[in-house]
Amino acid sequence: MNPNPALGVLFHWLGGLASGSFYVPYKGVKHWAWETYWLAGGFFSWIIAPWILASLLTKDLFAVLGQAPAAALFWAFFFGLLWGVGGLTFGLTMRYLGLSLGMAVVLGLCAAFGTLMPPIFRGQFMTQVVGTTSGRVILFGIFVCLAGITAAGLAGISKERVMSPEQQKAAIEEFDLRKGVGVAVLSGVMSACFAYGLAAGDPIKALTIRHGTPKLWQGLPVLTVVLIGGFLTNFIWCLILLKRNKSGYQFFNSEIRRDGLTDEPIIETALDAPSREVVQHSGSSARSSAQAALMVQPEAAQSVLRAPMLRNYLFCALAGTTWYFQFFFYTMGESQMGRYGFSSWTLHMASIIIFSSLWGIGFKEWKGAGVRAASLLTLALLLLVASTVIVGYGNYLGLANTSH
Questions:
Q1: H or E element that contains 304
Q2: Phi, psi of 290 (to 5 degrees)
Q3: What is the largest CA-CA distance in the chain?
Q4: Per-residue burial over 340-371, b = 16 or more CB atoms within 10 Å of its CB, e = otherwise
Q5: 196 is in which domain, residue-wise?
Q6: In which element (H, E) is residue 67 found?
Q7: 309, 255 Cβ separation under 8 angstroms
Q8: What is the spatial distance between Cα 234 and Cα 129, in angstroms, rounded to a whole number?
Q9: Counting C-beta atoms within 10 Å of the first and last residue's C-beta, which end of the chain has fewer, N or C?
């Protein structure tokens, strides 16, 4: 199967759609704390879906991983671990900057570091990127992507200046530009580690192809390793929250206990979730609704509400599996980009911002933001779409030059 950049761009768009949409099923989860439904969905995101699909679509998965170089396994896992840290701080960025500005700052840094560092470390940046026409076109597409991300950030800042304090409070409850930007820098750099983990897994890709795996699925074994690292970070954080918020019983008991409902601030985050619905205390909103019910019926002893257990687990499974599909399609798209596979990270970031911005519009985050903010957001979306076309064209030129 020869590389097909146009098909690769389509796969990356599908991945961006999955990333921008996975949180929607979480809205159907009732009366669970954030850490409960995030961990329940996370098992499908990081463990169940990756291993099932890799087992079905690749050859000799366990033999491949057993024969893989220890260094490749370690670095893929380690960068996955660091990426998980970036996800944790990403949630805090969403809390302080909101969906649009937070996504712009974090993903801008993530796009730059995640795209450019792999070829620099491989010693290919000057020869394959700067030194070829196709590479320069791709580099131009990357800068167009960064310009689009910048425009999205400016749109967010413009919105913040136009909106009244009351509107800002309604849209982003804890807006703090200085604190948010500081956390965003850390998050953007650490989140780029996912791209490093995939690059570190190149020997695993080569090995699975030798075992007979089609090139389209070569990245799936690497994903299982990288996502174990991400799972570990998330798992530890969720355990801390389960203990602090006394919410662990929710996995097994449908009754929402009164003693778990307090006025204390609930510590939570929104790892990779591009949604105000998740960022703005989805877990505590469940507690708030339960508290309201208890106020209406104060005679209730230990339980007033019942969480729909089967429904909650099904929605978590759907959300978690949808989340995984962003990287499922990412690896498929990367397989179609030829020798410029590093450009996949830019396509992935651009697609996520496009679809998350559209969801932000759908959730009325931009209501009352003003004409200037709307114009900048429109410009951002146009630039991001253009960047995917330019990067795809650069990859096409690279294949054409190779064939000649």
A1: strand 303-306
A2: -70, -40
A3: 81
A4: bbbbbbbbbbbbbbbbbbebbeeeebbeebee
A5: 5-403
A6: helix 61-67
A7: no
A8: 35
A9: C
Are the C-beta atoms of 391 and 347 separated by less than 8 Å? yes
Question: What is the pTM for the complete model shown?
Answer: 0.76
Does the pLDDT of residue 216 top 80, yes or no? yes
Q: How confident is the model at residue 368 (pLDDT cuts 50, 70, 90)?
A: confident
List Cβ neighbours of 204 (8 Å cut-off, separation of 6 or more): 64, 65, 68, 72, 73, 76, 221, 222, 225
Angle, helices 99-121 vs 344-362, to 10°: value is: 180
Number of domain units in the chain: 1
Identify the CA nearest to 144 among candidates 404, 395, 388: 388
Which residues sit opposite 257 in a β-bridge? 303
The DSSP code sequence of 157-174 is HHHHHHS-HHHHHHH-TT
pLDDT at residue 134 greater than cutoff 90: no
Q: Whole-angstrom Cα distance, residue 135 to residue 402?
A: 13
